[in-house]
Every structure is written in structure tokens, then in C-alpha cells.
Amino acid sequence: MAKVYTDQNVFNAFMDRMEYIFSKFDHVVVAFSGGKDSGLMLELVNLYYARRRPDAKVSVYHIDYEGNYQYTIDYVSRCMGKYPYFDYYHLCMPVSASCGVSMYQSTWMPWNPDEKDIWLKERPPGAITLENHGFDFFKVGMSDYVFQTKFGKWLHKRRGAKRTAVLVGIRAQESLNRYHAVTRDSAYRMFGKIAYSTRVYTGIYNFYPLYDWLVEDIWTANAKFGFDYNKLYDLYYLAGIPVVEMRVANPFHECGVEALKLFRAIEPNTWSRLVGRVNGANFGAIYGGTKAVGYKDISLPKGHTWKTYTEFLLNTLPSRTREIYRRKFETSLRYWLDKGGALPVRVVNELRKTDIVFERLGKPTGKRKYRSDHEVVRFAEYPDSVDLRNFRSLPSYKRMCVTIMKNDTSCRYMGFSQTKDELQKGKEAMAVWESLM
Asked: Is 387 in contact with 355 (CB distance < 8 Å)?
């Protein structure tokens, strides 16, 4: 998406986006996580709604992942039901959520009905639970990504909407994945020509109206308008965490591993329960953000190449986890050794100065559009390590090692697209297939 410069500030741009969305959709949903972005979005939607009083219905939903700081629990409690003209859905469902702290389980299940004795807290009054949900699509252990999508469809039908807009508080500044999500040029997936939108189902679209806000804009708006926010961020600030690194998420999610250690200092009682909740939580708290999990420069053990070290690390894993990595690694090997992959020309020129042997196969012939000149290269041997500035765009066994140490079963560090949990997808596919037999 090309840069567009206007005289508007991000607040006025957001309000214009609300005007457009509310004029096109009769049902607007706020996906509220309890973090700074979705919290501000809830306040801004209310500000727009209070000023304009549009005809559209507004729903707010929060997926409760059971493991949260008390500050987050208190903030969510203050927000759910805060504006009486909105409908609220506090979801405490046993779904399969990403787990970035354990080699033995790539997911964990908040509110697991078989583990009530080790739940991290009690479900709040009025929550939607396994006992009272009424969802015709729900299955215990279904992926949280699938649940959110199907819940949106269920809510769309329940509210009798013709069009539903789900507002999601992600910003391009936070990561390359999020930048790609809100700037990709996929016209067939967009609503009209709105690049910050994605089609989910017929009549249901996700919108990312905060996509161009910076973290400084978030806190400026909170201060200017006196909005309530999660006071956990104040403690993060006192702990010396840079504002761009502050996260509020499922504590076992890979994005939250580095913050696990803060539980011990901020909420020791909660921490003691977290350790007993998911395998690997204590390891994640001790070593999250260190070379032990691939967040710092890792060193090669004596007597190993990166290739042999990759094999060593694979052999330390549970068989199911090991096979996930092997499939992805073999895909990468076939891709770069047989077909070849596209690299920026400047990176190809840097490669020419190394002793790595590769063929230059010319310009890419596919339909993908690149922002700079690219060239397809095919390696004679898969590189062991690539000591170039752009090593993140190049394949190597060292990247495989870092991927394993990051517990990155989706292999995003190696350039694979972010996926839902693959094991859970397989189970759900089999369940669907069996139901048709």
C-alpha cells in the first residue's frame, strides 16, 4: 500500500473511518483484549457513538484466557458493561490457545473442564461458559482463531445483521506481520478499496482502524481525553520496559514469554499458580529473552556445524514436535535447493562476495509484486550459516537452530507464513470428516 500523506492527525482519520464504517455496516463489533490498543479503540468508538448516535448496533467481546494480572482482570471488569447501549460478551471458553513456553505442548486450554482444580482464577459473574454458551459450532479444544471467526459469524446471525464490521486493534508499528496484515494489496479480500479491511465471511469484515497509530499516539489520546486504561502499563513503565515492548496477552503465548518473569515480581501469588498450570512456564520466565531461547546471539557448541546442531536439537524434542519442525525444514530445503527463491538484488550482490555457491535464475515469473528488484537464486548446498546483514532473508541451518530454540513451531523466524496451530487443525479436520461418515 503506497504511503498517503494528509493534513489529518490520526484521531481525525480514525473518526472519519468510523463515519465510513458505521455508514456501511449495521452491526459493529469491538474485539477487546484488555490491552492498550483495543482499550483505546473501545473508548474512541464510544466517543464517536455518543456524538453521532448512528443506527448501527455495537457489540463488544472479550476472550478470557484465564491467566492474567489482577490489573488486567480489574480493567476488563471495568470495561465490560461500561457503556450500557453496547452489548457485551465475556467469553470463558475451553479453547486451544498458543503455548510458547513448552516443547511438549504447542497449545494449552484455558478453562479446561478436566482441570478445574488448577484454574488460575474463578470465572467472572455473567461470563459465557461451557455450561451456558448456546453456540451450535463449539467443540471443546477448538482453536481460538477458529473460535473467534465462528463466534463472529454466530454474532452476525444473532444480531440479524446484513453487514458486520469487526474492529481489531492491531497497528502496523508493532511487527512486520501486523504491518503486512494491514497494508497488503489483496483487493478481492478487502471491503471496497479499504486496504485496512479483510473479508471473513459473506457480509463480515475485519477492520483495523488504528493501523497507522504509533504507541505515542495511544498514550497521547488516553491523556488528552482522560480515558481509563489498564494500569498494568504503569507497572511495566516502572519496571523499565520500553513502551514499544509493553504487551498484555495470554501469558503462555510466544509474544508474552519475555514478560513471564515479571509475574514473579508483580504478582507472586499468581505466579505460583502459573508454574503449576502449564509445562515450561518456569523455564520461560527464567530464560525468556536470553540466548537459551534464541533471543540473543547463540553460540555453536564445539565440534558441531549448524547442520549437526540442528539435528541434535531435533533429537531432544518430543516426537510429535520434532515432526512439525522436520516437515517445515524439509519444505525449506526443497524450495531453496530445487525450485529456488526470490531475493532482493542487493542481497544477491552481497551473496556473491561469499563462498556460498548458488545459481542466478533471473527475475521472478510469478504474480507476486515486489517493492524492489528481486532475483531468483538456487543454492547448490543449503547454507550452514550466512554472515550477512540481511541474514533474516536467507536460508541457513543456523536459522533452523534459532527457530527450535525460540519454540517457534510455526517457523515464522524462517519466513513461513503465520498459521493456526497445525496439530489442532488436524484434529478438527478429522472430527469434521468423522462426522460425515
From this structure: no
